[in-house]
Amino acid sequence: MSSRSLSILVIDENRPRASIIEAGLREAGHERVTIVHDVNAIARRIAEVEPDVIVIDLENPNRDMLENMFNLSRAVKRPIAMFVDRSDQASIEAAVEAGVSAYVVDGLRQERVKPILDMAISRFNAFSRMSRELDEARSALESRKIIDKAKGILMRSRGLSEEEAYALLRRTAMNQNRKISEIAQSLVVASGLLDGGGLP
């Protein structure tokens, strides 16, 4: 998707400030820009608009407002660029923790909107990629553990070597058109039941 075809939702209760952001986006060639001035029921508006990117300008937010927006950031799973006029270290750390892609203090100027938006998208994509890779690594580790456990069961119960146990798991998985980890999981569960481990 071209960056210029992105749907961008701007959340700003202050109309003059919102116009600065909108001007910066339109100057950068973005045409699909939606402005929301009322933050009430903002989750519903996001569901309606389905934006690719969200820009939030809070001017001088109180702690409750910040927390609400941080909760929003955790929920929507989209690149978010947030402008505030003032902040403290705790709020900056909370923003990072909430996954805000760009948290900009005292930096709302028309010419800065585009580069900050680009940075937010890049950071979000990088973070998403790292999260996905981490999930895949965890899944692979769990699969490896369950396969090792299944191999151990086969080695003890059938007197197989480790290589033979793995070959049997792999052959069974191929015959049943399933993953080795699924076969291994079934074997471990069945073994637990037969040993009485799954019974109350």
From TrEMBL:
InterPro entries: ANTAR (IPR005561), CheY-like_superfamily (IPR011006), Sig_transdc_resp-reg_antiterm (IPR008327), Sig_transdc_resp-reg_receiver (IPR001789), WH-like_DNA-bd_sf (IPR036388). Pfam families: ANTAR (PF03861), Response_reg (PF00072). Coiled coil: none annotated. This is Transcriptional regulatory protein pdtaR. It comes from the Bacteria. SUPFAM superfamilies: CheY-like. PANTHER family: PTHR43367, TWO-COMPONENT RESPONSE REGULATOR-LIKE APRR6-RELATED. SMART domains: ANTAR, REC. The gene is pdtaR_1. It comes from Nitratireductor thuwali. Residues 6-117 form the Response regulatory domain. Residues 133-188 form the ANTAR domain. Transmembrane segments: none annotated.
